[in-house]
């Protein structure tokens, strides 16, 4: 059994040891805190330097306290409570004095009551609110005010003449085009007959119930065309009020090809209207008439067409109006800054539309009474339209945050030089004989073959819409829409005359001039429209 005295002694010793450890730990923490405070004071003193300047000094006068004759004990003070501070009237503020200076003294600046200028602690959002600018925004570049809306104003638009006296502020953009154009109409050029036993005089003739059109009687090249447009220019002053720019665009060449080959069946024919009195007729390319003791015609016919459209020009740009303000936007809940600029653009514009259609046929006639012969025939119709005119329009850009909307309306007035070229040829080769070359095919004969030119007045309006998003201060991506209308052009299909006199057909034409087919300018209008996607860089 353990004695109670021993247990008591052991408990006292343990308590003393724990108390000693706690006291030692408290002393260590206090020592560390004191060293940290001393280290902070040393750092502050080492980095502080006295300032000598004329400042306002404020002296506070405090009334003297009369000595107390009796000293109350602590219990009495605690019973009566802590004394109240002296009233405001007991403290007088002495007016600041401008005399004297500070020499290594630290003074506290006076605290003034009233409105705080230049700070903001409100959660309201608006254009006059420096703490909130609404949606993401780049804003309008300064220096020149709203005239730099959406521009990258460098402040020095001309290089010093020590290097090159050339403008250094400018822009360049390239866009990929996906446009659609007004289709080229072609008359019926190749036909067939669903009835294989139809008579030779009715085979492939327009108006016969069994006749079907294989090529022509439709619009061609009205599908989507890809291309590119390049625009670039220079600003002639630092605030971008005068500039000169140029542009060039081109659509990829559109090509279409139809080809058919037959050994006699199915029937292949080229329709025309016989002006000698026979009415609708056809030239057979593939037809099997051996069952009636006639010839076997076999051959190939093809119709190829192409279309190319390019344009360009240059314009001077003059700033007419610039503005900036604040308004709500349906994509942003709070008011936001916006800026806009409107420019007058005038200059020169060029457009060119080149198109062509070629019909080729190669046929072989096999006769039981005579040696076979071959025929290589082609008709070619080509047109070219070149517009040169004066271009005038307006460009308006509105910028809000990183987004911009640019609208361009322009009208070009000038002359269209229209050129039509018609050519045809027939090469006839009989067995055992040399080939003979004859002018004229089927729709191109001596009566209309040649090159014809005329000048016509034309107008070319254009609408250009573009949405841009600012990626950096100088780079922007754009998505746009463009529509161009051309009032007066010639196209190949409109220059074809299906009225043909058979006596003009090779190899032995009876008439040389003055009969069908004839030529007369047949003009029409033209349009192209579509989307664009690209980028713009300003420097």
What does this structure look like?
By secondary structure, the chain is mostly beta strands. It has a domain at 170-538. It has helices spanning 4-47, 74-80; strands spanning 60-61, 92-93, 170-181, 184-186, 190-193, 211-215, 218-220, 224-235, 242-251, 254-262, 268-274, 279-288, 296-329, 332-366, 373-400, 403-430, 436-439, 450-470, 475-490, 499-500, 523-538. The strands form four sheets. Strands 3-8-9-13-14-15-16-18-19-21 form a ten-stranded antiparallel beta barrel. Strands 1-2 form a two-stranded antiparallel ribbon. Strands 4-7 form a two-stranded antiparallel sheet.
Write a concise synopsis of the structure shown:
The protein has 539 residues and is mainly β. 9% of the residues lie in helices and 49% in strands.
Structural class: mainly beta
What is the C-alpha radius of gyration, as a whole number of Å?
A: 48 Å
Mean pLDDT: 79
Largest sheet: 10 strands, antiparallel, barrel
Q: What level of helicity do the residues show? A: under 10%
- The H/E string reads HEHEEEEEEEEEEEEEEEEEEEE
Unreliable residue runs:
51-62, 67-82, 90-102, 114-124, 128-142, 157-163
User: Count of DSSP E strands?
Assistant: 21
β-strand percent reads over 45%
How far from one another are the termini? 101 Å
Strand order, largest beta sheet? 3-8-9-13-14-15-16-18-19-21
- Shape by Cα distribution: elongated
Task: Count the DSSP helices.
Answer: 2
